[in-house]
Design a protein that fits this description.
single chain; about 70 residues; alpha+beta; globular; binds zinc ion
Length: about 70
């Protein structure tokens, strides 16, 4: 099991209809993926998110245990 950070877009206010979720090993990577998703799916520019938006999104990030394939 590996610790991971995960974000479900539908948890975000106004995004209830979005089925996307992203998972990454580090929070930095997860933010990149959230931004990438917002850009592609919601036509948003994550560079324009203010601190309040980032703080809000941060509350929606969960830690999860992810089963990885045994080598
Ligand atoms: Zn979305």
């Amino acid at each position: 099991m590996t610790k991971a950070f995960t974000y479900h877009c539908r948890d975000c206010e106004g995004m209830e209809a979005c089925p996307a979720s992203v998972t990454a090993e580090t929070k930095g990577e997860l933010w990149q993926l959230i931004g990438h998703h917002a850009r592609i799916a919601h036509d948003e520019n994550p560079d324009e998110w203010d601190k309040a938006t980032r703080d809000y999104l941060d509350t929606l990030i969960h830690t999860a245990e992810v089963a990885t394939a045994a080598k």
